[in-house]
Amino acid sequence: MEISKESFSTIVSKATLVQIITITLTYLSPFLIAYFTGGFWIKEKTFTEQAEVKFQYRFIALLEGETNTYISSSYESINQIYSNEYRPSVRTITELDTNEDGINDLLELSIFISGIPIDTITNIKLILLFNSTLSAYSKLKLESLAYLESYNAKKSSELNFDGEIQFVQREKLREKITYNGYSYQLLNESNIDLEALNLDKIMRDYNSREYSTRLITDFVSWKNTLAEGFRINAHIRYAPFTISYVPAFWEQFKWGWIQYICSLIPFIYVFKRIKIFIFENQLVPTISMNITQKLKSS
Ligand SMILES: *[C@@H]1O[C@H](CO)[C@@H](O)[C@H](O)[C@H]1NC(C)=O
Ligand SMILES: *[C@@H]1O[C@H](CO)[C@@H](O)[C@H](O)[C@H]1NC(C)=O
Ligand SMILES: *[C@@H]1O[C@H](CO)[C@@H](O)[C@H](O)[C@H]1NC(C)=O
């Protein structure tokens, strides 16, 4: 084929342009797909960890009847402030490792509060305090709280409940950060005033923390078994916490890279076909050479 220098260069540049465009589209398309399908970057992942939960042996129980309210707690100062309502209690506390993984996962708690006339109690508020520690991804130590409120129209003398402590987070955890500042005591034993004893305020302060725990009750039953006093029996499981976190750079990069390669492969194939089609059908002028063969060998 006879071609002038000028037309040779336009032919070359047109063919080159096709090459450049198809290559660009091939490698860019995965990014477009990623853009319209939420991106390569994983913003959040979850994992579960059996947190180390420890009952602090601290509790506050408020027992409300039609006319009287009784209080019993592990805090000397609270019992003193409410000396008229205070009733002494006997506690039996066992923390068990039922699946034998070295971390306790069950609390069996029995609180017997004496000095309460039989059959008077209809409402119970109970606060139990724990320390929970996470250490797998980041270090997080928190004073965690389990709150139960239960009402029963029929006057009773015993409350049984089963529940589970679950992790609540408003912020995602970040890798290898030690989170301090969540282990402060909700109630300062040596400095309890009446205002600090406002349960509504305690609960609101607690629930607005970035990280906290919540008691989910599965089962509550009221009974009428005792001749005197009131008994609370609890089975509380320390279930593995489900934690959501922001993946660190290399974890994100690894998944991003895999996704990029996987979406790139079909585009390589498709654009190669398109390029062959364009050149084979002479949609752009090309110099006489066997393009099919050239592309296949490239
Ligand atoms: C709970 O944590 C507090 C504050 O870090 C600590 O003073 C206390 O001894 C811990 N209690 C238990 C039972 O681990
Ligand atoms: C508890 O209160 C006492 C007395 O006000 C104070 O000295 C102490 O630092 C407080 N403890 C905590 C953990 O806030
Ligand atoms: C290009 O090469 C292929 C495979 O070798 C052959 O079948 C075809 O005839 C060739 N085309 C031209 C235009 O030379």
UniProtKB/TrEMBL annotation:
Mention one GO biological process in which this protein takes part, according to its record.
cilium assembly
Q: What's the protein here called?
A: Transmembrane protein 231
Residues passing through the membrane, by range: 20-42
Question: Which Pfam families does this chain map to?
Answer: TM231
**What is the scientific name of the source organism?**
Brachionus calyciflorus
Task of the protein: Transmembrane component of the tectonic-like complex, a complex localized at the transition zone of primary cilia and acting as a barrier that prevents diffusion of transmembrane proteins between the cilia and plasma membranes. Required for ciliogenesis and sonic hedgehog/SHH signaling.
What InterPro entries does the entry give? TMEM231
Cell location? Cell projection, Cilium membrane
Family designation: Belongs to the TMEM231 family.
User: According to Swiss-Prot or TrEMBL, what is its membrane topology?
Assistant: Multi-pass membrane protein
Q: Highest taxon of the source?
A: Eukaryota
Gene Ontology cellular-component terms for this entry are: ciliary membrane; ciliary transition zone
